[in-house]
Amino acid sequence: MVKMPIRSFPEQRLARVALLLATLLSGCAFIERAVTPTYGPVDKVGQDAPGNGLSQIRETSEQEREALLDQPYIDPLTNYLRKHQNDTTPPSILSDVRRERDARCDAIARDYQTRAATEDNLQNYRAGYDYSCPQDVAAFAERVNTRTSKPELAQAAEEDQTEAAEAQRKALSDCYLLTSIKNFSAASKVCSTPAENGDTRAQASMGMIAYAFEKFDEALVWARHAAPESADASYLLGRLYERGKVVEVDRKKAAYWYQQAVDGGHRDAQGALQRLSSVAEPDDG
Hints:
Blueprint: H1 9-35, H2 54-70, H3 75-83, H4 91-113, H5 119-129, H6 134-149, H7 151-180, H8 184-196, H9 200-212, H10 216-226, H11 231-243, H12 251-263, H13 269-278
């Protein structure tokens, strides 16, 4: 019988401790290998994903711009400008939108310039456009404030307009009367202003006055301004073409203008037309 060597108690204890340490160390290594992640290839940092570059930003901005310009309202343009004033929207896009917004504000301002400066119109202006066109609304408000704070000035302006209109009516009346009685010197003084302002009868009177003073070039100018609306001017053109004053003699044109005068009720035009028809055409041969 072979006897195993008997170890002392301290030796046995040391052996167990060594075995335990070996087991623990082996287990820790296994655990470390088990929980250590395996990494694949590292992605490049900062690389743009497909479709997210500057070109797509511009394309999107251009589409938004076209949609904004196609719609009829002003406030969406202002909203877009405020939203994108500090982002990456291309400056050219913002400039186009701002230009369109300002153009629409200008169009509205021109419309309100033709309206009366009343509180009702001011309230409507503010309600519709104060957000996008505040400067234009403020200018209209100033008109309203001036009118309401200085009613005496507004009343004086209306009185001046009334007096001017009355003076113009009197000048026209005097012009027609003095021309009809052939007081051409006095008529020329009162007919010139309404004639220059476009009154047809006054223009015809100025033509007749010029013809009477043998200023045929002026007579032609005034007659052409007033004919064919004025029968007097049409008759005067007929005489100028019949007699060859400033223009060459042209019987056909003379007959045409005499007929226009007849149609307009000129009392002497029918006789002039008959006289012209009774005269034989000159022989071209």
